[in-house]
Amino acid sequence: MTNxxxxxxxxxxxxxxxxxxxxxxxxxxVRRAADQGAxxxxxxxxxxxxxxxxxxxxxxFDLAEEIPGPTTDRYAALAGCLGCHLxxxxxxxxxxxxxxxxxxxxxxxxxxxxxxxxxxxxxWSRGIEKYYFAPGNVGYPVFExxxxxxxxxxxxxxxxxxxxxxLTLSGAQIIFSVNNTASKRSLHVWEAxxxxxxSCNGVY
Length: 204
What we know:
The N and C termini lie close together (12 Å). The chain is globular, with a radius of gyration of 16 Å. By secondary structure, it is of the alpha/beta class. 30% of the residues lie in helices and 23% in strands.
């Protein structure tokens, strides 16, 4: 890894189900982060749709898209102009198998470099993610970017130490854990888990 890497984490408010408005907001926040020198910029979980798995509504399946697809094309064009790398979480559909994932696209100035699909799908009283998302099937890929090697996890993955161990053993130097966590309890647990994980694995 180079001596220093400037990263940015974006956790902007989203309008539930309004992909175009959320995309416009995301693009603007990416520009702001890049203007401050960020080289790797991560957006929040389900950045284009908002966190919709709080009720059953099959209309939400219409919001899913492929990777590469319209959203990643827009972010790739911006990354090309700004010369940065992006982590863009979105609702992905595998159109061939009609399978849906809570995913994140890793994008550079030349386009989509790959994806991560959330491996651990929770079932809890206020969320029904398992209705919408299949468990990820791409393992824990590491992406070689010019400044460093990175890995990605998504929200609930943070409770499972093996995610981070796999990424560390595969050479990740920075692991981005994108999320849509809001409650005080979750944030408290999140921070403790992240500090312990970073310390145990010797990564950021």
